[in-house]
Structure formats: structure tokens, C-alpha cells
Amino acid sequence: xxxxxxxxxxxxxxxxxxxxxxxxxxxxxxxxxxxxxxxxxxxxxxxxxxxxxxxxxxxxxxxxxxxxxxxxxxxxxxxxxxxxxxxxxxxxxxxxxxxxxxxxxxxxxxxxxxxxxxxxxxxxxxxxxxxxxxxxxxxxxxxxxxxxxxxxxxxxxxxxxxxxxxxxxxxxxxxxxxxxxxxxxxxxxxxxxxxxxxxxxxxxxx
Length: 206
Fold this sequence. Notes:
Elements: E1 8-13, H1 19-30, E2 33-35, H2 45-50, H3 52-75, E3 81-84, H4 88-100, H5 106-120, E4 128-133, H6 136-146, H7 156-172, E5 178-182, H8 192-205
Parallel strand pairs: 1-3, 1-4, 2-3, 4-5
């Protein structure tokens, strides 16, 4: 059920898609509480990018733990909220992709999926998922420009495979409204007119 008074917006998109910038924009304009992905304080990210096979399960469990905790907190707020990356992407994009690439074995994948199903059964669904879509070339350019050391070694093929997973996931969502935003054609950091137009689309959806 939609909640016009206290909307719950989930922002989704690949690494470098501009989620944090857009979360900042919407939270400031609409007085929504922003919730961000645990990146700078993530104890596994650097190790993961150095050895995905060794650290994939550890990383995904960390993200699942943090996003479940965040999702519960957001659901209890008497104020609009916007989340930089949803809990659903953890299993449908990142963990699944790692498994399909051979970087998470079957035992860990099945264990992770079982835990995910149990945890998400307790959660309220977002009123809207906004997918910031960007090509692999756009993502690489944005990742390089923001200069996070641990991201500079990301394989373009990994980003491409995540994009394929995102398209598959977004097309499969049935129970949550989805708004797809093509972000290749504008500078998400500077094009305020386009950002305002997207904001208008979101408000119409909710």
C-alpha cells in the first residue's frame, strides 16, 4: 500500500550510477531521511576487490546485515525515507552474480539465499524502487572521477555482468512499482534541470 504522507523510496543502481548524489538531492528537496550504503566503513570491500572468491560470502553477509538493520529502522520512521541501494539487490544482483561467476560456491549461495528469504519476510516493501540505469562506459567514467582507491581495480566485465543482472531483476519485479531512469545522457552531478524532472516523476508515482 502506498503511503503518500511518509513515502519509502528505494534507490537502486550499479556501482557508480549516482545513487548517493541522487539520494542527497531528494532528501534535501523533500525533507526525507536519507539512508546510505555502508561503504567507507565496510571492513571487507578492499579484501573483496583483491580476492572475490575468498571474500564474497563475508562481504554479502555484511551487506545483508547492515541493510536489514537499516530497512527495519526506515520502516519505523514517521517521515519520508529514501535508501541508497535496496536489500533486494543484495541477493538478486550481487550475490547471484558472484555465484554465477564462480566466486561464491553452491553451499554459501544456498545458505545466503535461505537467510535472505527469512529476513526479508519480516520487512515492509518500499512504495517505489527507482532504478538509475547507466552503461558500463558511463559507470567506469564516474568511478574513476570519484577516485575511491578500492574501486579503481574493478573489472569492467564485472560491471557489465552486474548491468545484465540489474536489467533482469528490474524486469522481474511484480509487487513493487518501479521507475527506470536512463542516466547516460546527463551529468547526474550537475544537471539540476534533469534532476528536477526525475524528482517530479517520482512524486507522481507515489
